[in-house]
Q: What sequence folds into this?
């Protein structure tokens, strides 16, 4: 989907003046991608800003959302600040090295704690309580159907810490 010069791609429902969205992966299959994601998470953590981490390996909807925003298959990490696309790891680290990332994050709310969530350990997802992660539930006639509460991995978003 081509963008007009004045239009910026942005995650759905995340174009507010105080939003930061980071698309990541927690899979270690491709070391550079995983390390790049850790680097950007470390930078955001060092500024202590509140951000929404969208792990494309934990929830397919996030992967599809990212591909739709940027118009094709892209690899995480991808950072959006205030609804504007900032870039991947090289761009974000470059902005940090030049002192521009701090200015870009000015005014973003600060995280209340540096400790991970006590419910999910900072993963932002929990095992589904309805199906215990099996993705199947029993129905009236004894058959098993897809659980309506969880994603493709048998997980639900943590209601205590998940932002966005």
A:
């Amino acid at each position: 989907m081509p963008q007009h010069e004045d239009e910026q791609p942005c995650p759905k429902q995340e174009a507010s003046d105080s939003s930061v969205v980071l698309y990541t992966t927690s899979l270690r299959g491709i070391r550079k991608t995983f390390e790049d994601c850790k680097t950007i998470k470390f930078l955001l953590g060092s500024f202590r800003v509140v951000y929404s981490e969208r792990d494309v390996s934990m929830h397919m909807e996030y992967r599809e959302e990212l591909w739709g925003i940027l118009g094709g298959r892209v690899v995480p990490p991808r950072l959006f600040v205030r609804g504007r696309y900032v870039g991947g790891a090289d761009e974000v680290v470059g902005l940090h090295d030049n002192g521009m990332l701090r200015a870009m994050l000015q005014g973003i709310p600060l995280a209340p704690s540096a400790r991970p969530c006590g419910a999910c350990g900072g993963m932002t997802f929990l095992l589904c309580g309805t199906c215990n992660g099996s993705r199947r539930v029993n129905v009236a006639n004894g058959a098993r159907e897809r659980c309506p509460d969880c994603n493709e991995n048998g997980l639900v978003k943590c209601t205590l810490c998940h932002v966005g």
About this structure: The two ends are 24 Å apart (CA to CA). DSSP finds four helices and eight strands in the chain. The beta strands are 20-24, 52-55, 78-81, 84-87, 125-127, 136-138, 144-146, 155-157. Helices lie at 31-47, 60-70, 89-97, 100-105.
